Amino acid sequence: MAIELKDVSFAYPNGYVANEGLNLVIKDGELLSIVGQNGAGKTTAVKLMNGLNKPSKGDVLVDGVNTKEKSCAWISKTVGYVFQNPDDQIFNSTALAEIEYMPRYMKLSEEEVKKRSSRAIEMTGISHYLKMNPLDIPYAIRKFVAIAAIIATQPKYLILDEPTAGQDKRGNEILENIIKELKRDGTGVIAITHDMDFVAKNFPRIVAMAHKNIIADGTAKEIFWNSAIVEESRIKKPQIAQVAERLNLPGSILFREELTNALR
Ligand SMILES: Nc1ncnc2c1ncn2[C@@H]1O[C@H](COP(=O)(O)OP(=O)(O)OP(=O)(O)O)[C@@H](O)[C@H]1O
């Protein structure tokens, strides 16, 4: 089972073409990160995966079902999308109501609603904020409310659009644990992020985008140690890789232990 993009192009209503001829297969249970400069078309591409955007050309298949034939609400049960800006997503008056909303909308039993919500709350570490109006919750934590609301729907694939934006070290640690736990459950995670250290550490597969298209698809070492890809997609190498490059060390180093070993 997989999300498949087959020669997909997308134009916004004003005619602007944001994706051109995308081809990509994401198998279930995969951890994949999408990187690339602002405006490369990353958000447009992930919105094609859950039916928020429908292709202008080509087809998107979710576990074999063409997204053109289904509503976004239907596809979202399989492919959950967490908005880049939580304020585009959150609409309930308390964090708890926001998290319980979708499981209830899915007509799950009250016991199941509570079970799923509790787990999502625990994973995202937001138990102290449940009674608050989301608008009064600090932005970084509000992003976790938005993530919890989608985790509670237990999608097979979860898309996180810039989850690291606005997060500190602690926030990133929580995100890493969420990704690990979802991986254990067999949930696929697709994340757009500009934090390349986070990408190298957490995602075995990276897709680099530039000028509306996918320009590379590979492991962290393959992407970050290929200067042509780094330049074209205008990404920064992870910090350790930058140090290794300055020191002219061999071995496509990305992590601290690799750097320490090489220096020894
Ligand atoms: N609703 C819209 N109407 C017209 N053009 C749009 C619309 N939304 C986005 N675009 C344009 O499409 C292009 C791709 O946008 P997209 O948000 O997919 O890029 P991105 O790679 O996710 O960038 P970022 O990292 O800044 O989020 C941009 O040039 C953007 O201005």
From TrEMBL:
Pfam families in alphabetical order: ABC_tran
Keywords (A to Z) from UniProt: ATP-binding, Cell membrane, Membrane, Nucleotide-binding, Translocase, Transport
Domain of life: Bacteria
Occurrences of domain ABC transporter (ranges): 3-236
Mode of membrane association: Peripheral membrane protein
Primary residence: membrane
GO cellular component: ATP-binding cassette (ABC) transporter complex
Cellular localisation: Cell membrane
Gene Ontology molecular-function annotations: ATP binding; ATP hydrolysis activity; ATPase-coupled transmembrane transporter activity
Database matches in SMART domains: AAA
Family: Belongs to the ABC transporter superfamily.
Name this polypeptide is given: Energy-coupling factor transport system ATP-binding protein
